[in-house]
Specification:
Rossmann fold; nine-stranded mixed β-sheet; alpha/beta; 21% helix; SAM-dependent_MTases_sf; globular
Length: 301
């Protein structure tokens, strides 16, 4: 029986050569993406910036709209390649770009998750894994070092970008199955096919639509999707990692749902916050900026 740990964890991502959280505060954050710097909204940065915001030297800023549906626009003070520019995380290369959705084509706070998944699969080259809501494929390419990956996303544009990232990294020959599909429907079909996986990562949105007009609402649809994911795992599987952004929900709630569904498997269920650490300032260690909540099941074997 899986053991539920009620003590929350913090998975903190540190900056690397091509990314860093420079400063944060007053509901905004300043980040570096390679040679470019950007300011974006960040409601959880309720403290004051380390330096005056007037000294934030940025190439552009995303200005949110007046509604709560994620609208807004980019404003640029310096030239930025509109078609994107190349970045890398370890051996995985990918294109960063200022998207209409305020992010830049990948989620840097997922770096410690990618590290953790690879640790769980250490020494394996035959592990079968699945990335649901796989977006532009950085996590998929990280997993592909350990065996075949099924990458699922409803957006044709995102899957096309993921394939381009694979080619950019020289990893286009890795065993990846690229699927343009509704994640929940695909997982249900995999259950009917009696498939199994060694690991699953899923990053569902708060709200979304599938390629056939399917409507996704996190609070309503997550329990059924997670139940199907459980059916795709067994006692020899290694992990499931679930991240959730921008919802009024506790990580303990996610862990409670997982505890119910994974009761018959060995391993451990943990939960907590994803965070990114600021680049160290004059005062030493940088602050931690929370970005998402998570719950995970792990079974090292």
């Amino acid at each position: 029986m899986a053991t539920l740990s009620t003590q929350p964890l913090i998975l903190a991502g540190e900056g690397w050569a091509d990314y860093g959280l420079v400063d944060s505060g007053h509901g905004r954050k300043l980040e570096r993406y390679g040679a470019y710097r950007f300011v974006r909204p960040e409601p959880q940065a309720m403290w004051s910036p380390r330096v005056s915001e007037g000294e934030w030297d940025a190439h552009g800023e995303f200005v949110p709209g007046s509604d709560e549906d994620g609208g807004g626009r980019w404003q640029f003070d310096k030239a930025v390649p509109r078609d994107g520019w190349d970045l890398a995380w370890n051996e995985v290369a990918f294109t960063a770009q200022c998207t209409p959705f305020r992010h830049l084509g990948f989620f840097p706070d997922m770096a410690p998750v990618w590290d953790w998944m690879r640790t769980m699969l250490a020494g394996r080259t035959d592990a079968s894994t699945m990335n649901l809501f796989g977006y532009t494929g950085v996590g998929t390419l990280a997993l592909s070092a350990h065996g075949p990956v099924t990458h699922v996303d409803a957006s044709k544009k995102s899957v096309a970008q993921a394939r381009e990232n694979a080619a950019l990294a020289g990893l286009q020959d890795r065993p990846v199955r690229w699927m343009i599909d509704d994640a929940a429907k695909f997982a249900a079909r995999e259950v009917r096919r009696e498939k199994r996986y060694d690991g699953i990562i899923l990053d569902p949105p708060k709200f979304g639509r599938g390629p056939g007009g399917e409507t996704w609402r996190l609070e309503e649809n997550l329990p059924a999707l997670l139940a199907d994911c459980r059916r795709l795992l067994d006692a020899d599987s290694r992990f499931l990692f679930l991240t959730v952004y921008a919802v009024r929900m506790s990580s303990l709630a996610l862990a409670g749902l997982m505890d119910e569904l994974f009761a018959d498997l060995p391993g451990t269920i943990e939960h907590g916050d994803l965070a990114v650490r600021e680049d160290a300032g004059k005062d030493g260690e940088g602050r931690l900026l929370p970005t998402a909540i998570f719950a995970r099941w792990s079974n090292p074997g």
